[in-house]
Design goal:
The chain is 49% helix and 17% strand. The chain contains 26 helices and 28 strands. Strands 1, 2, 3, 4, 5, 6, 7, 8, 9, 10, 11 and 12 form a 12-stranded mixed beta sheet that branches. The chain is elongated.
């Protein structure tokens, strides 16, 4: 222990004596620690500990319904009741639905994201309130409108109520209804959706009152909008619970065949749930962690090179220590201790940097989405990771110079020290090998970044089948203003009339769903006249509820038949428009116009066929889709999205939209209004994260590799000063010396690049197996539409890296070419 303390004190003195070397080493290590800790912080917040503030989170699982086609969908309230009342292997099942609440009175209201939850929500999750209480067992019931209470988050309590200790019992106005605050959630609790941050929780039984929907929706098994969470009983395995759930779902499918035929259900780990940030970020975070490993290895190689150079400069010191009796193990301990001191200093800097780097992910989030909390700061898990990372870096970076010190015998060391104070070829070979490794790893990172950047660009270039340019999108939550269904319809019609007469507006339309957003389309069970589905065929077809003019506003071409008109209302026969893929699948080349399709218990007549477009993801395969008129089908549980096509920048129309809304009702607030081109970027969020962050990490890897090569070439020039002087004295020209040094650098880089190409191909092919939130990363060697061995990416990466290598070698080469022969001959 005394020797360790002495070594640490010696290391601190050496750091103080060489501030330049210390700064470079610490900053290099800090970069690796900061990037790795940042990405691990995201992984911890979203995948490892997705629900902070809950009791025994390892026993919590997601409950999801599965369709005959294998898709995962959310649950209905009646299904939840059956699961809750009949499953025996769980300690409880809760359901939740994320919603945007209007909090505050009338024109002072603000949008606050919260959750409508079953009364047992906090009990199932095991959440202990910071103040007050959560929902009581008496509030677990299924009686609509009976529980006007709310629990708020610690963040909301502090920001809106000044952390009032007497908060319980106070009122909060939600959707223009007065509720009583009964408790404050603990600081770390953010809700039931990994990565999201909610501020208000209200019993689901308040939905009919708060959102102005009919109580029948609580009895409708087709109304599937609830995310399920279950707590497994102690000792029950996930497979056992799945078997019981599947058996119950099978009985429900027979008992309620009109709504549940073909449906099943399963339990999934929370981190693998298909609803939440984790479903979007699972694949990108895996990739980023892999690239962080690459960057970390480059950092370790770079620092090992620096420490090896430093050990070389201290050759006389080490030789003297060995002559005085210090063994190889003692010298290795000294070097490793110094490496550890550098790593600890770097960890302090890196962890501090990761605090603000962790919020970078939020900058990539499209506007108008649920608030996210993907970086919860340095908690115990992240701190433990940083500590282990620090020890690993100290070992990896210090191992090479430590092993090198123990290879040569004492006589050789003293002879070399007596000659020049410098090492022989062994040290140089080791440093060259480390640089070659850095170059190969940098090439892997650069190729990976290139593949993802190009695939992201390719996805952005995919034609969505509609034109989002010059369109302003606004989403209204009229239910939060106490509007009933008929009032919402009238508001929509009046706002459209006002906007259409405004200058600079060419088209106005509205719909339930928005294409290429975070949320998928809703679907409906269809019965198609003249078509007999196979036994396992999925007849739950995605749809949208649209106003007249929606298709023309988005420039979706009509292939056959007609568009909806204002006459397609509640008084006329229901009509429907289908897409090309719908026609191919269900009508087999027959004329679809005039044929009948049953949905929502009514028969619709097909009046038109439109061209296919993209509905959920830019890379999705063609799928059947249909549209129905807003006036005929719009229900209280549906959303309202407004589209305004302008002649110029759509952002310029925002003030006009707000003014027209205010003319109709001053209490309706335009919370979300963004260009449609910006909003649909949500569908590319996972790929955008991967491409953006990989580009940054790839650039960092190249810079670190260039620094490593530069340091080796600079040191090589110093070592060969005497040799260069002799060459110059014998007639070598400066350009010959320049060529000699640059060639040496290129040879080092070439060896690294050959290994890098092999590794990059293997890595790229393995990445092709990952899936990015509904858009498969590819089959047959394809990576998001780009070949895993794309020659352009590989050649471009190699050329770019070669240019960087040339620059890194050229600078010390020019210094070597300027060496004066007489000074070099006297150089020791």
């Amino acid at each position: 222990m005394n020797s360790l303390l002495q070594d640490m004190q010696h290391a601190l003195r050496m750091m103080k004596r060489n501030p330049g070397f210390t700064a470079i080493t610490v900053l290099t290590l800090a970069l690796g620690i900061a990037t790795s800790t940042t990405v691990f912080g995201w992984v911890d917040a979203i995948l490892l500990h997705p629900l902070p503030g809950v009791e025994q989170p390892d026993r919590l699982v997601a409950l999801e319904t599965t369709t005959p086609g294998g898709e995962f969908v959310t649950n209905s309230y009646p299904d939840y009741r059956d699961f809750r009342d009949h499953l025996k292997l769980v300690d409880g099942i809760a359901v939740t639905r994320p919603v945007a609440f209007s909090v505050g009175k009338e024109d002072h209201a603000e949008r606050v994201w919260g959750e409508l939850v079953s009364g047992n929500f906090f009990s199932v999750l095991g959440v202990t309130p910071e103040r007050g209480r959560t929902f009581l067992p008496a509030e677990y019931g299924d009686k609509p409108g009976a529980f006007p209470v709310a629990v708020i988050s610690d963040r909301f309590w502090r920001s809106h109520f000044g952390a009032d200790p007497q908060i319980t019992g106070k009122s909060i106005w939600i959707n223009q209804h007065e509720l009583t605050i009964v408790g404050v959630a603990p600081t770390e609790f953010r809700g039931s959706s990994p990565g999201a941050a909610f501020d208000v929780w209200v019993p689901y039984m308040m939905q009919p009152i708060l959102n102005g929907v009919g109580e029948w929706m609580l009895r409708d098994r087709k109304d599937r909008n609830m995310i399920g969470i279950a707590r497994l009983k102690q000792g029950v395995t996930l497979e056992q619970a799945r078997e019981e759930l599947a058996a119950l779902a099978g009985r429900m499918a027979k008992a309620d065949a009109d709504t549940n035929e073909g449906l099943s259900a399963t339990f999934l780990p929370i981190a693998k749930s298909h609803f939440g940030a984790q479903s979007l970020l699972l694949a990108p975070l895996r990739v980023l962690m892999g690239v962080c490993v690459v960057v970390l290895l480059i950092v370790c190689a770079n620092v090992a090179n620096l420490l090896l150079a430093r050990a070389t400069a201290r050759h006389k010191e080490f030789s003297t220590r060995m002559a005085l009796g210090a063994g190889r193990a003692r010298l290795a301990q000294l070097v490793l201790t110094e490496s550890l001191v550098f790593a600890v200093a770097a960890a302090v800097v890196g962890i501090a940097a990761s605090q603000w780097m962790g919020r970078v992910l939020l900058l990539l989030l499209p506007k108008g989405q649920i608030a996210m909390a993907v970086h919860g700061g340095v908690n115990g898990t992240v701190l433990l990771f940083a500590t282990l990372l620090c020890l690993l870096i100290a070992l990896l970076a210090g191992l090479v110079p430590a092993l090198h010190l123990g290879r040569a015998d004492l006589t050789e060391r003293l002879n070399e020290a007596g000659r020049s104070g410098m090492t022989g070829t062994g040290s140089h070979r080791m440093r060259s090998l480390l640089v070659a490794a850095e170059v190969s790893l940098a090439l892997v990172a650069l190729i990976g970044a290139g593949l993802f950047a190009r695939s992201f660009a390719a996805l952005r270039e995919i034609k969505p089948g509609f034109n989002p340019n010059q369109v302003l999108l606004s989403q209204f939550y009229l239910s939060t203003n106490g509007y009933n269904l008929e009032q919402r319809k009238q508001f929509s019609i009046r706002l459209r009339e006002k906007l259409e007469s405004a200058p600079g507006v060419t088209n106005v339309a509205y719909s339930d769903g928005v294409p290429l957003g975070f949320e998928p389309s809703w679907w409906e069970d269809l019965n198609i006249e003249g078509y007999t589905p196979s036994r396992s065929e999925n007849m739950k077809i995605f749809r949208n509820v649209i106003s007249p003019g929606y298709l023309s506003l988005l420039r979706i071409p009509m292939i056959e038949g007609r568009d909806f008109t204002e006459q397609d209302d509640e008084k006329t026969n229901p009509v429907m428009i289908v897409n090309q893929t719908f026609v191919k699948r269900f009508f087999a080349g027959r004329n679809p116009v005039g044929r009948r399709i049953q949905g929502w218990g009514e028969w619709f007549t097909v009046v038109g066929v439109v061209q296919d477009s993209k509905y959920h993801y830019p890379g999705e395969a063609p799928l059947p889709y249909f549209y129905v008129p807003f006036r005929q089908v719009y229900r209280a549980d549906m959303q309202l999205a407004y589209y305004v096509r302008t002649v110029g920048n759509p952002n310029n129309a925002l003030a006009m939209v707000r003014q027209k809304v205010k003319e109709i009702d001053p209490n309706v607030t335009v919370f979300d209004a963004v260009p449609l081109t910006e909003y649909i970027g949500a569908s590319l969020f996972p790929q955008k994260v991967a491409a953006s962050m990989l580009t940054v990490l790839g650039a960092l890897a190249v810079i670190l590799a260039a620094v490593g090569l530069y340091s080796v070439m600079s040191y090589s020039v110093v070592q060969r000063t005497h040799e260069i002087g002799i060459r110059m004295a014998l007639g070598a020209r400066p350009e010959d010396v320049l060529r000699l040094v640059v060639r040496q650098g290129l040879l080092l880089a070439s060896a690294g690049m050959l290994a890098g190409f092999a590794m990059a191909i293997a890595v790229a092919r393995s990445l092709s197996a990952l899936s990015f939130a509904g858009s498969a990363m590819g089959t047959g060697g394809k990576l998001l539409g780009v070949s895993a061995t794309d020659p352009v990416i590989y050649a471009g990466s190699a050329l770019f890296l070669t240019a960087v290598v040339l620059l890194a070698a050229y600078i010390p080469a020019t210094r070597a070419a300027k060496v004066e022969p007489m000074e070099a001959l006297r150089y020791e």
